[in-house]
Amino acid sequence: MYLYLLGLVVLFYLYRWVREMPRVPDKGSKHVYVTGCDSGFGNLLARHLDKKGFRVIAACFTEKGEDGLKKSCSSKLTTTHLDVRSKESVAKVGAMIKELVGEQGLWAIVNNAGVSVPSAPNDWLTIDDFKSMLDVNLMGVIATTLSVLPLIKKARGRVVNVASVFGRISPTGGPYTISKYGVEAFNDSLRLNMKHFGVKVLCIEPGFFKTNVTDSVLLKRNVETLWAKLPQDVKDDYGPQFLPNSLEMIDEKVSKISDGDLMKVVGCMEHAVSAVRPRTRYSPGWDAKLFWLPLSYMPTCLTDYFFHIQSSPIAVKI
């Protein structure tokens, strides 16, 4: 019986592998708009798609990011400054892309830009802390997509949204998981809406990878800065050991479980852009496949207990 089940699983994955192999033709005429290309996944994806022959429009926040791509990529790649928090910046880039792609439209947008700080327990934060991240991770995704959606409809192309496994489960406080849950919801509603127009809307849900989002130095500095701003009564609630324990946890857990092979994510992004039959969702990283996603389907009482025993102890006891 078990051998039959194993055989069915093997046949399913073999069938899926064969089905997903074909790639779209005429890559040299297809424009792909990628946000967040200064570093990490976005930078690597822009280079990768350029080598594959696509006409990449790489949006960077810094001149350094633009200069690096210009030096390392072909003349077909176009760089532009983009601040996804700014309506004017998003509209300006959208108008530039409309003029660049002409009547053929835009083949794909990859919404990759994102930040991971400020992150902390919710009672450490202000509403401005939440807004600053949501403006980038969620409102930025929506704004950039809407700015070029008519062009994607014209090309019957793709929208690729980068969410996270933390769009499925919320083990931390702060706006990061909220923003990723929002991306998931926007992705799902847009996918159903755009199906009528032949547009594919796809979601990437990475686990932990070594990028700025999981940079332990940045994350520890964030925690220390927020702790220093807290009123004394909140510090007393958490206790003097909470801060050093949290910093130690970042070093021990975040750094160690983060995968250094960014191509696992970039390969999924490229497949979403170039495959004739892309997947609706991609979950790159073994931690995503074997831990975070299965955990997200567990009963709430079990996940709450697991995260509770893994968290740093606090001074106030109920």
Polypeptide structure, described:
By secondary structure, the protein is α/β, with parallel strands linked by helices. It has helices spanning 2-19, 40-52, 63-72, 87-101, 127-137, 139-155, 175-194, 216-229, 232-238, 242-257, 263-274, 286-296, 300-310; strands at residues 31-34, 55-60, 78-81, 108-111, 158-162, 200-204, 281-282. The protein starts with a helix and ends in an 8-residue tail after the last helix.
Largest sheet: 7 strands, parallel
Q: Provide the helix percentage.
A: 55-70%
Q: What is the CA–CA distance across the termini?
A: 50 Å
- Give the beta-strand count: 7
Measured on Cα atoms, how large is the radius of gyration? Answer: 21 Å
Which regions are unreliable across 5 or more consecutive residues at pLDDT < 50? none
- Sum up the overall morphology in one term: globular
Mean pLDDT: 94
Number of separate helices: 13
Read across the widest sheet, the strand sequence of neighbours is 3-2-1-4-5-6-7
The computed structural class is alpha/beta
Order of helices and strands: HEHEHEHEHHEHEHHHHEHH
Strand content: 5-15%
